[in-house]
Each structure stands twice: as C-alpha cells, then as structure tokens.
C-alpha cells in the first residue's frame, strides 16, 4: 500500500466540491516519547486516509503536531482513532474559529526530528516542567497586573496582523530564534516578574515556558490552548477580548478574525490591510500583506520583476526555474527589499 498522498490540490478540491460535505478545521498536539515514529506515522496515514482526513501532521520521537481538515460526518470516527492511542485519549481538539472546507487539500503525515524546531539539544529541557497553564479568565486577570509581562512566542509575520494588547513581540523569523532573544530581554526580571506566554495553539509555549524555567525564571505561565482556545472561551463565557486583530494560521485560510481591528498595513502602499498572500511568481512565493488595490495593480506579485515573470506562459516560467533552487524569499515571509511598508500600526 502506498502511504502518501497521490492527488493534486486541484483534484482534491474537485472531489470536495462534488461531495458537498461540510468539513471541520482543527488541530492538536502532544509531547510524548514515541518509540517508533515511522510505525506510528504509517498507522495514522492508513486510518485517517480512510476517513478522508486531510492536513499537515508532524510526527517525531518527541510527539505529534497535527493540523487537520475532517469531514463533519466522520468526526466521531476520527475521535475514536485518536482515543485508540493511549497517550492521545481524551486530548483537547482546537476547533478553528472560522471554517473553510478547503483549508487543507492533501494528507501529509511527515516524520521530523522534532515537532517544533527549537535549536536545542535532545534532553536539554524537561517538558514535564512547563509553565503553569491558564484559561482565558485566568489569563485576562493575570495580564492586567502591573507585575506581568506578556510575551508573544510566534513569528513576526504572525504577530504583525494580530496580538494581545501590551504584548512583547519578538521580531523573529522562527521559533528557535525567539528562545535566546526572549531570555535575554527578560533576564533582569527572571526572579521578580510574572511571565505569561502565548502562541497559536499552545505547542510552542510548552517548550518556551519550559526553556525559561530551565534558565531560572521563577514565575512562568502559558495560555492553555493558545489564541484559538482563548477566543472560544471568550465567546462562550462572555469575557473581555484582549486580543486585537487576526490570528495567523498555517493553512489555506492564512488567518481568522479574533476582533474587528486592522492593525497592519499593505506592504506595498501602506493602507490598512491584514490579508496575507503569496507572490504569484512561483519562483518567489514570498508571503506578504497586500490590499485588493495593490493585488490588482501588481497581479498579486511582490515586485515588477515578479509580475513580468508571472505573466509569461507557464512553460516559459518552468524553463526559467529549471535547475534553480527556490528563492530564499520563500522562507523570509514578509521581509524583502521590494516591500516598502512593514511595520504594524499598533
């Protein structure tokens, strides 16, 4: 049996449209010592492929990180496949705030060295000693205290379109960059201040809070379930929403609204905007913020040179790309000399 995706994104989209079934976008993670990641990976692909589950799943010896799209009619059966795994039984599923039937178009279950790349040596930190978990109500209360620092453990392109009021926003491209930067910036407060960390769904804060405690920080907390679970609790329990803007997500939706505030600007003209796009030139594919007006002017490209290439026949574009590595802009996400505006409005 071939244990990999065999359909293109367009083929999968057509099948979803034809089926007409509603789908749920959800995520979960679990740090756990997996003795045979390859065997576990293959098992997940088989059982989830049968249920028409799509998504991006990372499996490593340290655990699993899953972002998924599940047919609503198969949700109960999907939950059973999770409960059948002892260390995943009754795990919380973070249900997306805004749903899209096409959030994922392939099932990719990949083996990784780590489910969150951190730049640390294996065994350097003890993940059982993470920061204290806070629900939305507890989080709101604690961040209102003058003795508290709020730290965003996401990347710059994520916090640019949305973040908690008053949060420290490290200007980083990756999680591994953020750990030493956050430690250094808060070093003088490690014994006196309360440090509250948050991320999209909680997985990065498990490591980040553990890392700070390992480095001698005394009062470390993390938002349980991240921004996704926070938003759900705020809505269900009628709590004050301290998050402004959008929550960046790593699927075709790219973001979901947590508040009506627009705190970022188009990277090309500077107008208020919080819509991420990828440059239409496949050899570039830069992720950046672009308003509708600039999208029309530039044909969803980040520069005139990319626009010229994207207007060429597809076969000619392929010839230009042949034998060349992808532009490093693919990994820069919003950092390019061609972009005039980058800073958030607040």
Task: Please give the share of residues in helix.
Answer: 25-40%
CATH superfamily of the largest domain: Rhodanese-like domain
Rg calculated over all Cα atoms? 21 Å
What's the domain count? 3
| Mean pLDDT, all residues | 93
Structure summary, number of beta strands: 14
Low-pLDDT segments: none
H-E order? HEHEEHEEEHEHEHEHEHEEEEHHHH
Please report the distance between the alpha carbons of the first and last residues: 52 Å
Fraction of residues in β-strands: 15-25%
Principal-axes geometry comes out as globular
Largest sheet: 5 strands, mixed
CATH class categorisation of the largest domain: Alpha Beta
What is the name of the CATH architecture of the largest domain? 3-Layer(aba) Sandwich
CATH topology call of the largest domain: Oxidized Rhodanese, domain 1
């Amino acid at each position: 049996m071939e244990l990999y995706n065999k359909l293109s994104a367009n083929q999968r989209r057509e099948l979803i449209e034809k089926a007409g079934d509603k789908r749920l976008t959800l995520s979960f993670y679990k740090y756990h010592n997996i003795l045979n990641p390859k065997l576990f990976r293959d098992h997940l692909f088989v059982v989830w492929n049968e249920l028409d589950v799509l998504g991006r799943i990372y499996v490593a010896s340290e655990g699993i990180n899953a972002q998924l799209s599940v047919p609503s009619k198969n949700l109960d059966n999907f939950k059973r496949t999770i409960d059948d795994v002892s260390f995943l039984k009754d795990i919380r599923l973070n249900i997306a705030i805004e749903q899209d039937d096409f959030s994922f178009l392939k099932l990719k279950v990949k083996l990784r060295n780590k489910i969150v790349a951190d730049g640390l040596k294996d065994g350097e930190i003890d993940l059982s000693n993470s920061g204290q978990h806070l629900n939305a109500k507890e989080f709101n209360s604690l961040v209102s205290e003058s003795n508290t620092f709020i730290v965003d453990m996401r990347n710059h392109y994520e916090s640019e379109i949305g973040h908690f009021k008053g949060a420290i926003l490290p200007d980083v491209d990756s999680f591994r960059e953020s750990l030493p930067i956050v430690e250094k910036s808060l070093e003088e407060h490690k014994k006196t201040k309360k440090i509250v960390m948050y991320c999209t769904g909680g997985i990065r804060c498990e490591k980040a809070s553990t890392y700070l405690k390992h480095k001698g920080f005394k009062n470390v907390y993390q938002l349980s379930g991240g921004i996704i679970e926070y938003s759900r609790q705020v809505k269900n329990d009628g709590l004050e929403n301290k998050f402004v803007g959008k929550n960046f997500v790593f699927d075709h939706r790219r973001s979901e609204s947590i508040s009506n505030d627009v705190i970022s600007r188009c990277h090309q003209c500077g107008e208020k905007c919080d819509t991420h796009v990828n440059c239409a030139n496949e050899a570039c594919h830069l992720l950046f913020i672009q308003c509708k007006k600039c999208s029309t002017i530039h044909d969803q490209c980040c520069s005139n040179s990319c626009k010229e290439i994207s207007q060429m026949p597809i076969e000619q574009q392929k010839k230009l790309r042949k034998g060349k590595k992808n532009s490093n802009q693919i990994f820069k996400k919003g950092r390019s000399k061609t972009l005039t505006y980058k800073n958030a409005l607040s």
